[in-house]
């Protein structure tokens, strides 16, 4: 532009004089300079427009990148990072003596099962539907984020003297999400566990990101407590919950280390033939011999092992040890093993058991796999296939804890079980409760009709032993016959009773297996 002004100041008067006839022809150099300046102006304007467009596009891209960094693609909610920043701002703005913030952690129950059974597309549909339902019930001023695979977080301002408003909101969330999600003509049932933490719970109201992280952490702790209490419910954060969670985390680490270090060992509970009062086998029960906690029962560590995904590895190690222990017993004594419902979701479970039988040269006919009624509620087709595979190889399969779960008479008729185990809740009150006695009588009569042998669990005294003995032939187990013992104690007991394995037992076991296979082949020929 400066070049244009300087040159044009000389060129323009000369050109004007030439056009008016005052002087000779225009100065060619000055004319060309003028044209060049005009061209430069035009080119500069085009470049200016191009640069503006480029900057606008860059700003738009940066805004989109910033939006994507803050938003969860699947649900359109905020993500964890942006939610924490928003919560920090709200803590600064909203909290005072009258106003408070509630952080609400919402976690889907059994979401992994939805994914495993129906596919990831179904899982995505559940997540989108959950986000939409939570967003609909969220009041004005509330913020919703998806912060993990199946976990959402909300923050809601409320009057510090009216926590019932937050409880009402949590109840609506539980109810809304519990409505089945329809996907590809399949109704997907989901529930949520909810934990709530208030800014009031912060001992001294921390400002900024540290306060936000602390509030989110406390909501998470309350949510885990809700899961522990049965799921599909909500709880406010309370300080003792934090200690419980720390202990839970300690147990998780201990279980993982214990599996690697061989701290989980089989104990054995006697099983007695009530008609002859003779020992006929043992049920293997897991114990954790923790260097720090002592001997820990399965009711403590089995649910945690299931949740953290190590129950399969733990169970296989125990079964392998039990096979080696049972090989030292008389060949007529059986070994019963409980199987977790989580293991029954593994389509290769039956093959894994058969592989262990071969590896340890343990006779299949001495093994009794016990599954609970809970397994029948999940995937009846897979369960039927597994039971059939195991029985085809000579393994016995029992239905454990009968009467407490989901089994029906039609399932008993259609599933090829070898035995029913009556749950201890019916047995322990057998003499004190006439209804229990009538129920056990009915189960025994039904089993006789179905030609299914029975084992009664939880026999605590001689009186119950005699009542059951009068009902017909069955096996029994419980503290009346002795508490579960480690392998060394069992060997001492069997030595006294002269029930240890002999050298001829291996030959007898091989002959028994060969006879079973021959009978199966002959049966197949007749069927053909």
From TrEMBL:
Residues 248-498 form the EAL domain. SMART domains: EAL, GGDEF. It comes from the Bacteria. CDD domains: EAL (cd01948), GGDEF (cd01949). Residues 99-239 form the GGDEF domain. InterPro entries: Biofilm_reg_signaling (IPR052155), EAL_dom (IPR001633), EAL_sf (IPR035919), GGDEF_dom (IPR000160), Nucleotide_cyclase (IPR029787), Rev_trsase/Diguanyl_cyclase (IPR043128). It holds the Pfam family GGDEF. This is EAL domain-containing protein.
